[in-house]
């Protein structure tokens, strides 16, 4: 397994240089030594993407959308579209999948497949993302130029991380601090780690994943909640937040709006360094939040 733990611009560029990443998207047919990947791989990935599209959270547009990442060992990481009453805060499927991969420490992405034809926004995301280049090798399929052959698709990744035998708020926040090392933060050099704890005790990680186009940046809270939607795991009890370089930090306004829509009954715990953790109910973090009740909904 390859892990990626950049803490800032220089570190990120050093790692990317070592791994041989360059900075362009190539058009279909520019595949180097090999022909297009076997048709059965493209079909298999499309089927997984289509299956997960049904898990999209799209109460406003009713337009489900998903993508799936194929890792170099054949493991699959799906991502679905997650809408928000504040439309501009919606999480695209592609950013959802990439941020899930980052939180799990996986950057060994061999290919990306979509449930529908990729949009201009998807293409722009791939053009600007540090894990490029990708070549378009099908209507809905992009292949990393770092590899010569695509692996056979295997099973979908388990998005959970192991829970220690001994568990407390202090331990949870320490775990989120360690998790923040997976953050991809060349723009801000401000790592954030999040753990979402489900009612049954399982844990979903999240880190902030930055992009040269700041509108494509995914906050750690948004990352973890997007993963939860993708895997149909919305019985959320606790959200643990750690910003190792700022023990006064709290969720931004955008993340508060997202949390109140996707995890309204959760309790948020914020690390405060040597002081006791700060606790707040999600609804108390954003009084008078925008509910979107009067918004038009496509059927």
Describe this structure in words.
The strands form 2 sheets. The chain has a 5-stranded antiparallel sheet with strand order 2-1-3-5-4. Strands 7-6-8-9-10 form a 5-stranded mixed sheet, with helices on both faces. The chain is of the alpha+beta class and 299 residues long. The chain has 8 helices and 10 strands. The chain folds into 2 domains: 9-144, Cytidine Deaminase, domain 2, CATH 3.40.140.10; 169-285, Cytidine Deaminase, domain 2. The protein has helices at residues 9-18, 39-53, 93-103, 120-128, 169-179, 220-230, 253-262, 282-285, and strands spanning 66-71, 76-80, 109-114, 134-136, 141-144, 193-198, 203-207, 236-242, 267-270, 278-281. 27% of the residues lie in helices and 17% in strands.
Question: What's the short version?
Answer:
By secondary structure, the protein is of the alpha+beta class. It has helices at residues 9-18, 39-53, 93-103, 120-128, 169-179, 220-230, 253-262, 282-285, and strands at residues 66-71, 76-80, 109-114, 134-136, 141-144, 193-198, 203-207, 236-242, 267-270, 278-281.
């Amino acid at each position: 397994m390859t892990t990626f733990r950049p803490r800032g611009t220089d570190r990120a560029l050093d790692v990317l240089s070592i791994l041989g990443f360059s900075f362009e998207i190539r058009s279909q047919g520019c595949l180097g030594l090999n022909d297009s990947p076997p048709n059965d791989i493209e079909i298999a990935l499309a089927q997984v993407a289509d299956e997960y599209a049904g898990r999209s959270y799209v109460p406003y547009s009713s337009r489900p959308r998903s993508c799936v990442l194929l890792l170099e060992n054949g493991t699959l990481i799906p991502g679905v579209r997650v809408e928000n009453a504040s439309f501009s805060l919606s999480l695209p499927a592609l950013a959802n999948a990439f941020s899930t991969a980052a939180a799990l420490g996986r950057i060994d992405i061999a290919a990306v497949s979509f449930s529908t034809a990729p949009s201009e926004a998807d293409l722009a995301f791939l053009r600007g993302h540090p894990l490029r280049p990708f070549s378009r090798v099908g209507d809905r399929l992009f292949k990393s130029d770092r590899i010569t052959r695509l692996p056979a698709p295997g099973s979908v990744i388990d998005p959970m991380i192991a829970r220690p035998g001994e568990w407390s708020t202090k331990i949870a926040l320490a775990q989120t601090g360690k998790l923040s090392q997976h953050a991809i933060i060349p723009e801000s050099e401000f790592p954030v780690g999040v753990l979402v704890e489900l009612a049954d005790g399982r844990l979903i990680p999240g880190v902030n994943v930055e992009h040269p186009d700041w509108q494509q940046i995914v906050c750690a809270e948004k990352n973890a909640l997007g993963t939860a939607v993708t895997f149909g795991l919305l019985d959320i009890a606790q959200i643990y937040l750690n910003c190792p370089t700022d023990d006064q930090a709290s969720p931004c306004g955008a993340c508060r709006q997202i949390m109140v829509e996707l995890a309204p009954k959760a309790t948020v715990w914020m690390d405060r360094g040597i002081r006791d953790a700060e606790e707040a109910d999600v609804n108390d973090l954003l009084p008078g939040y925008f509910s979107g009740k009067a918004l038009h909904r496509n059927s």
